[in-house]
Amino acid sequence: MAVLTVEDVGLSFAGVRAIDGVSFEVGPTELFAVIGPNGAGKTSIFNVLSGVYRPQRGKVVFLETELLGRRPDEIAAMGLARTFQNVELFHNLTVLDNLMLGRHCHFGYGTLSAIAWFGRARRQELEARARIEDIIDFLELAAWRRHPVRLLPYGIQKRVELGRALAMEPRLLLLDEPVAGMNLEETEDMARFVLDIRDELGIPIVLVDHDMGLVMDLADRVLVLDFGRQVALGTPAEVQRDPKVIEAYLGGTA
Amino acid sequence: MTDTRSTAKAEVPDTPAGRSRRPRGRPLLYTSYTQDMALLDTRAKKIWTGLLVLLALSLSVVLADRSLEVLAGAYVLAIGAIGLNIVTGYAGQVSLGHAFFVAIGAYTAAAVSGPRGGEHLGLGLAEIWIWLPAAGLVAALFGVLVAPLATRLRGLYLAVVTLGLVFLGEHVFKEWDHLTGGPGVGREAAVPQLFGLPLDQDGFATKEQQLYVLMLVLLIVFAVAARNLARSRIGRAFSAIRDRDIAAAVIGVPLTRYKVLAFGISSFYAGCAGGLFYSISGYVEPGSFSLLLSVQFIAMVLIGGVATVSGAIAGALFISLLQPITRSLPELLPIVSADTTVTPNVFQVETVLYGLLIILFLVFEPRGLFGIWIRVRTYWKSWPFSY
Ligand SMILES: Nc1ncnc2c1ncn2[C@@H]1O[C@H](COP(=O)(O)OP(=O)(O)OP(=O)(O)O)[C@@H](O)[C@H]1O
Ligand SMILES: [Mg+2]
């Protein structure tokens, strides 16, 4: 049973077809990659899945529920987490607060309880803190716990953003270019985290990246896009042999 | 500094017993999350806060009645400033309409507590524990009604629209004289009566002493409530919306609901401040709720420190203590008039002064008085090494 089913989704902006009839499925423990040249529509697909953009046509089913037409916060509450291509952290807050925000949907206390900081509020905050510490250990963020994220190096910010998504305890994780702009060592670290998330935490992942080596090494299946259209879909080996993919990447597109 | 703190605590599990002792001389070594997440997380903070409260209380017997009255007013304005800080500092929704919500609170309180069947609208319920929540709730209701604007407008546009509220309010309050007494006349304000004891008349102590202690206690209650709110899921969600609203929505924060909540809570604080403030002088005049009052609150928040409760309090004290000085200007500088119809008058000088202060702080210390305090503290911590 697929976790996510995308069926014939089409999205356009005043004439620009950002996504043009894309369909795919993501399995329960799959690491699914989406690749394509700049402007191919990869980020747009993530924006559709997380409710930021509303496509003109198509169907998206996540855990047997239709996603289209729902607000981003409703989709988040259903268990869909993502990271952004350009880090979108809460810049004035510390690493701890950013991670605690990831758990927003898991709290069940109200305003009055928060103001009194008693009973439910206090207990749940302490519980959440313990969970967050596990993520801090897992992503090796301990040294930065109390730093405002805007002061952190880019690579660490990317990791904090991944941590925030994990704190949501997602049932599907979307990663938009997690290693963009990273050096070799940071890339290897991130690759290790991605594999651990899938293998140890059992969370299915959709990965977008321009780093072909990384994608081909990690992914179970790959979807190739060009100008919003689906060029190929298959295992890394199949996709690499596909002449249409080679054409899209080697500039036969003009 | 921060590193010792983080690594010290990294692997230590939460001790369920809660209050565990920490070794002496290691103020930043936490042995449980309870300790780490406490409001006053170091011994120094506990001691200083305690001393400050004691000092404030002891002022009630030390200071002259006139000064106590000014300070009591400052404490009430601090409640209002904390309120503005919730919506503007934490949630990032710039509001110039704070004076409007203060007015709603002032008139709700006056109407609930005013004598029944008198010259002005009155329900005859003078007990403070009735009219204070009423003032807060009615103002909060207006805040909630206005909030949906914030989901459509941002930044400057929101500021201008909330400014419109102030003008609208000014007009209504001038016209509706059964409620407000009309411009230049005004009406009696809410009576601070506690269990049958009118605190605005000499009783256990002088009128000013009673009011001073009342306002101090209320300020502490409102400040602690705001601190708790700020460190809860709700305060975090507010900051998330301020810093990056799309990301906030994508991690599960419903934007509309939280903006409405921020306006509601902020207006609740404003309403309570409005009800309390005029109960000190015993009199409300509809001309008080002009743009100047909104600007005053913004100055308090910016000068004190955005998104800190202690900053809002410091800013309110600063501005309130500045006022007796500016109000005595006409005696020192004859060109400055005390009459609002003459230019230049005291109120114009005040507006310009607040503007200047806001600009100076924004340029030189955007974190406000709170930022200056942090700098002084780090200076002494690292003394004699100056880096
Ligand atoms: N909000 C928007 N308004 C108008 N056009 C948009 C918007 N978002 C995306 N587009 C357009 O949609 C197309 C796909 O953009 P998208 O960001 O999805 O590409 P991408 O595959 O993520 O590219 P990159 O590899 O550069 O990140 C582009 O032509 C882009 O200009
Ligand atoms: Mg992109």
Summary tags:
heterodimer, A: 254 residues, alpha/beta, Rossmann fold, 6-stranded mixed β-sheet, globular, B: 387 residues, mainly alpha, ABC transporter involved in vitamin B12 uptake, BtuC, two-stranded antiparallel ribbon, 18 helices, 4 strands, binds adenosine-5'-triphosphate, binds magnesium ion
Structure annotation, total helices of chain B: 18
- The CATH architecture classification of chain B is Orthogonal Bundle
Count of individual helical segments of chain A: 10
Q: Please give the alpha-carbon distance between the first and last residues of chain A.
A: 39 Å
Large-scale geometry of chain B: globular
CATH superfamily of the domain at 4-79 and 170-250 in chain A: P-loop containing nucleotide triphosphate hydrolases
State the low-pLDDT regions of chain B, or none: 1-19
Shape estimate of chain A: globular
SSE topology string of chain B? HHHHHHHHHEEEHHHHEHHHHH
The CATH class of the domain at 4-79 and 170-250 in chain A is Alpha Beta
- What is the count of structural domains of chain B? 1
Number of DSSP-assigned strands of chain A: 10
Q: Which sheet architecture does the biggest sheet of chain B show?
A: 2 strands, antiparallel
User: What order do the helices and strands of chain A follow?
Assistant: EEEHEEHEHHHHEHEHEEHH
Helix percentage of chain B:
55-70%
Task: Give the DSSP E fraction of chain B (strand runs of 2 or more residues).
Answer: under 5%
InterPro entries (chain A): AAA+_ATPase, ABC_AA/LPS_Transport, ABC_transporter-like_ATP-bd, BCA_ABC_TP_C, P-loop_NTPase
Protein name (chain A): Branched-chain amino acid transport system ATP-binding protein
Keywords (chain A): ATP-binding, Nucleotide-binding, Transport
GO molecular function (chain A): ATP binding; ATP hydrolysis activity
